[in-house]
Amino acid sequence: MQTSTRWTVAVLVVVVALGAALWLQLGGGESETGSSGSATPRDRRDADTVQALAGPRADADLEPCPAPGVGDGPEAVRGIILECAGDGSSVDVAKAVSGRTVVLNLWAYWCAPCARELPAMAEYQRRVGAEVTVLTVHQDENETAALLRLAELGVHLPTLQDGRRRIAAALEVPNVMPATVVLRSDGSVAAILPRSFDNADEIAAAVGPVIGP
């Protein structure tokens, strides 16, 4: 084999080896990326450690997430376990909403209409008391930003951290934010409302007729 040919083969081997190493370094395996190479959604960022969230959680001062109710809850969300943003505890979503009338408010920290709506949701919860449970669902990986937004707004509603949007997918909610899902106490979906509300009166007008007296 001629010297020039040997050098060509050697260079090709090095290039292939470097390319393979780079592919692995960038996450060519399935553990962090899908087959298309796009990032796999996560419930929260790696940066959102228990230590990093401690301060934002204290500032947000959220209400506890609902304790398990009576029954198994809606079949569509059974098996979905999410983090309660207020204290980091694990929440079985189906059991948390079981046996109670629930208003699920789906939002994200970067959504301007969501920020306008959240205080209205809080006011609606204050008015209805224990009759209805308003549970917000943060649909972005950045949990710290969610807590900071809630603290800024002075909204203390219980919140689930759902960066993968598993609840929305399970309940077939349109891909818009904010969106509100009303669940009856028997676990059935009373309404899916892919819209924003400006005040508590609008929320009451939309929710009241679908949950009944």
From TrEMBL:
Thioredoxin domain boundaries: 56-212
A cellular component term, taken from the record's GO annotations: cell envelope
Record's keyword annotation contains Transmembrane: yes
Signal peptide range: none
Keyword Isomerase applies: yes
Compartment(s): Cell envelope
Gene3D superfamilies: Glutaredoxin
UniProt GO MF annotations: isomerase activity; oxidoreductase activity
Ranges for region Disordered: 28-47
Entry keyword set: Cytochrome c-type biogenesis, Disulfide bond, Isomerase, Redox-active center, Signal-anchor, Transmembrane
GO BP annotation list: cytochrome complex assembly
The protein's name: Thiol-disulfide isomerase-like thioredoxin
